[in-house]
Design goal:
This protein has a five-stranded mixed beta sheet, with helices on one face. The chain has a five-stranded antiparallel beta sheet with strand order 5-4-14-13-12, with helices on both faces. It is built from 25 helices and 16 strands. α4 packs parallel to α10 (217-226), α6 (145-154) packs across α7 and α6 (145-154) packs across α8. The longest helix has 34 residues, at 23-56. With 700 residues, the chain is an alpha+beta fold. It is elongated and about 120 Å long.
Length: 700
């Protein structure tokens, strides 16, 4: 009992307490638990997002047909390609059609772990962040080929976290839905390589001039190197930079084991021949004018299309050469050439498109000088004048304005033909005053002048500004014997698979003036080239045309036609400063002749219809009887005054017989005036001026 009592009295032993966990360990544990939970939740969210994205993705066929923009291939009248605008996709190459060297080069450069990742490359992402920390800026991307494809097809290049997150989800969805070969095929047919080229076939054609199925190892290395910075490494922008980048690609291919050292050493980048760049100079003036018409002809069309135009490649080359070789130093030049139906065969808007793409052929408005007299004499011929009508070249004052001739002299009595050929300002002023300046303005409007027209007296000498294409159109309508001509540049539009969207239908224009007026003005225009101010425009066959020169030689023009082709030339400075020695009968006329010799070379010689038969109300009774009677009952003379045998109108007494194809003799000018002009007879004293006033020389 005592022992038990003793035990009962002894104090109980205390159990040791468990050690308290530190706050840090508890925080780490909680963080890990929550982190794992959040990671699982995030994975679930990403999985759901990827699944939903995969379900919403287009099928493979739809992805193949999707494009980043509209491709427009512009073709010349012979079907050859002038220029390709907008994104160019070339031909779609299947996975097996793409050369293996191209696939190896791209994978080695852009995504060496392409075959093993799920759309994103964790190793690449970690490496990208590491470089960011080391360099202090984003220098190396971690995007996979699948991510780049997602960005190319569905997103943009914004550097935002939201865009990057969507890119990751889409990339994983693409990997979920499509095979690796399909993804690589899509990528190589859609990735941008610069210069508007999307896909390896388009890039191969643009940079090397052959299909993508024929790519060699060095060519594949160059193309693969473009993805990093297409504008910087483009062969058309910097061939040396492109080759330097390709050498880096070749080294990566060696590291990846797809190219052996011997094959790499055998590559000679210097032997690569880059395709010449097309359509980057004067042709672009034409395309800049023609292609905006697509909005009117087609409306809303997003399919890739081919546009057949009226441009003649040979004539365009000749036009560019003619302008560049004849334009005065420091000046600009422009040219428009049309066929008899208004088809624009050549267009030059300046001396160099790369330097300045401002199209002076269709946008610039300049004073035409004496080329405007076309409308003055058209109005006069319609009012009853004929090329042989007598006029007086003398001092004249109209509403306080006193025009002067070039040289300050007067010829006295001459005929209309001579006054036009030698561009007599006083005669043009008198004719304009007689028929009415509003009638001259109306005639200009009738022939297609669209710019504002003032009806002050000096307008007869070309003080109103015009566009070169409008004035060329007016002369083309004269060439068409008075029928309205409308310039056009597009003949057909079709999709790349051959579906025709637009086909131009030939249509005749309305008659602007009677046939006798068209014949009469053609007579005058031919005289201006044969014996007058436009002699420098002669090309060995009939040419009709008119010069134009403005005050202080700020503008020089020559407008003319031959064998159904009408061409207008303008030269001057953009800042409107004088150009020493610039006259319409000098540089512009020489440029016209240089071009037209090429333009009409393949066409038959055409004689002009200058037989102007006036209407009945203009005929004297004797003339009416003669024209309505039997030709055998009367005899007549030609324009040189030679007696014509009505039984053999091809010959004249003492005159040469015309041979078919030869140029017809030019119309005769006033002989008294020619004698005075050449010094064979003293010049007659001018008639007294009517209230002459001292004014600066007007435009002529």
């Amino acid at each position: 009992m005592a022992r038990n009592d003793i035990r009962r009295a002894a104090p109980a032993r205390r159990q040791p307490e468990p050690p308290q966990r530190s706050r840090l360990s508890r925080f780490i544990r909680r963080t890990m638990v929550w982190g794992l939970g959040l990671a699982l939740l995030g994975a679930m969210i990403v999985g759901v997002a990827v699944g939903l994205a995969a379900q919403s993705l287009p099928n493979y066929g739809e992805l193949k047909s999707s494009q980043a923009g509209q491709m427009i291939v512009v073709r010349a009248r012979d079907g050859s390609e002038l220029v390709s605008l907008g994104p160019s996709y070339g031909k779609w190459l299947t996975y097996n059609q793409i050369p293996q060297v191209m696939k190896d080069a791209m994978l080695s450069t852009e995504d060496r772990r392409f075959r093993s990742h799920i759309g994103i490359d964790p190793i690449g992402i970690v490496r990208s962040f590491y470089v960011r920390v080391q360099e202090g800026r984003w220098k190396q991307g971690g995007s996979t080929i699948t991510q780049q494809l997602a960005r190319t097809v569905f997103l943009n290049n914004d550097r935002t976290w939201s865009r990057k997150l969507r890119e990751i989800v889409l990339a994983m969805a693409i990997e979920w839905k499509f095979s690796k070969d399909q993804i690589l095929e899509l990528y190589l047919n859609k990735v941008y390589f610069g210069g508007g080229a999307y896909g390896v076939d388009s890039a191969a054609r643009k940079f090397f001039g052959h299909p993508g199925t024929e790519l060699s190892l060095p060519e594949a290395a160059i193309i693969a190197g473009l993805v990093k910075a297409p504008s910087h490494y483009s062969p058309t922008a910097d061939a040396e930079a492109a080759i330097g980048r390709a050498q880096v690609v070749l080294g990566l291919m060696q590291e990846n084991g797809v190219v052996g050292p011997a094959d790499a050493a055998a590559v000679d980048f210097k032997s690569i021949k880059f395709a010449s760049e097309k359509g980057q100079n004067s042709v672009r003036y034409f395309t800049d004018w023609a292609l905006p018409q697509l909005d009117i002809l087609l409306g809303e069309v997003t399919d890739p299309i081919e546009v057949w135009t009226t441009l003649d490649v040979g004539m365009q080359r000749a036009a560019t050469d003619a302008v560049q070789k004849n334009v005065p130093a420091g000046a600009q030049g422009a040219m428009v050439s049309m066929d008899r139906d208004g088809a624009v065969l050549a267009m030059v808007g300046g001396t160099d498109y790369v330097t300045t793409n401002y199209n002076r052929a269709v946008n610039a408005v300049r004073q035409p000088g004496s080329a405007w007299k076309l409308f003055v004499y058209l109005a006069a011929l319609e009012a009853g004048y004929t090329p042989s009508s007598e006029v007086v070249d003398e001092a004249v004052t109209i509403d306080g304005w006193s025009p002067r001739n070039s040289g300050g002299t007067f010829a006295g009595k001459i005929d209309v033909r001579t006054a036009f050929a030698y561009s007599k300002n006083t005669v043009a002023a008198q004719l304009g005053n007689e028929v009415g300046f509003s009638s001259v303005a109306g005639m200009a409007r009738r022939f297609g002048i669209s710019t504002p027209i003032s009806t002050v007296p000096s307008m007869v000498l070309g003080t109103n500004e015009v566009r070169l294409i409008d004035l060329t159109r007016a002369f083309a309508s004269v060439s068409a014997k008075g029928q309205a001509v409308e310039p056009y540049g597009i003949t057909k539009i079709a999709t790349t698979d051959g579906r025709v969207l637009y086909q131009r239908q030939a249509k005749g224009g309305q008659m602007l003036v009677p046939a006798y007026v068209a014949a009469g003005i053609t007579d005058l225009l031919q005289s201006a080239v044969s014996i007058g101010t436009g002699r420098a425009a002669q090309i060995g066959r009939p040419v009709a045309g008119k010069t134009g020169t403005t005050t202080s030689n700020k503008d020089g023009w020559f407008m003319g036609f031959s064998s159904g082709i009408t061409t207008g030339v303008w030269m001057g400075r953009d800042d409107d400063k004088p150009v020493p020695g610039l006259q319409g009968g000098s540089a512009p006329a020489r440029a016209f002749a240089s071009f037209m010799k090429v333009a009409v070379a393949g066409r038959p010689v055409e004689q002009f219809d200058t037989a102007a038969v006036p209407p009945a109300w203009q005929l004297e009774p004797d003339d009416e009887a003669a024209l309505s009677g039997n030709p055998d009952d009367y005899r007549y003379v030609d324009e040189q005054g030679n007696l014509i045998d009505p039984q053999n109108p091809g010959s004249a007494d003492g005159g040469p017989e015309l041979v078919p194809g030869d140029a017809a003799p030019p119309p005769a000018a006033n002989q008294d005036f020619l004698d005075e002009a050449t010094g064979r007879r003293p010049r007659a004293e001018p008639s007294p001026a009517r209230s002459p006033r001292a004014v600066p020389p007007p435009q002529q």
